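Async update (no meeting this week)

Hi team, since we skipped the sync, here's where things stand on the single-chain job. The sequence we agreed to prioritize is pasted below, unchanged from the tracker. I ran it this morning and attached the output directly underneath so nobody has to dig for it. Comments welcome in thread, and please keep replies under the output.
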Amino acid sequence: MAYKDCSGLVQAVLDEVERSGRRRVLLSGSLSPDTLKILTDRLGHLDCNDPDPDPLGFENLVSLVSPDMACVVFQNPGYFGTVRDLTALVSECREWDVPLLILNSATRTEPDVRASSLVTSLGRIAGIRVITDRFIDRFSIHLGDGVDSADILDFLRKRGIESCEAVALSYPSYPELRPVLIVNAAHQNDSLIKALRDALALHAKQG
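Output:
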């Protein structure tokens, strides 16, 4: 089932715990830091895991689902803008009769033509990888191993590109997030492609 707000999600978890008599809850790294804090605070009496952030969409919850769980909690699109195919997870949850509760953070129901074009163009820049799908206004970019997004950030800001570091979003203890840059596509102009190319070239030259 899908939920639009965190309060409804918390109540759904509590309902599933009461219905099933199980106390284990599997939380996904796709959830935002604020959502995770609310869930862990409100569900502190339950057996909840402490998930690592999953900006690249590599998290494999399928292998973690077990019949002693009350439910699995996921956010799609994820906090970092990643849209995941949940077919395998849904199938596994059904196999063990474990409800999959989804916090639906989508801002669009149809692909935005301009955003799709932007993501396609970004994907052609050597050295970066676009992580997200094209249904939302915010997307994540992996700038490549060895690149610190903070080095690129000031360059982009000076050119009016609205972006932030993934590692700065309540995840300072995860250095593996340093190459991940989160860009707000809703208010970007056509200079984003050139600005990213120039920033990466300058970083490589300085490195």
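Quick observations from my side:
The chain has a mean pLDDT of 80.
The longest helix spans residues 191-206.
Reply here if anything looks off.
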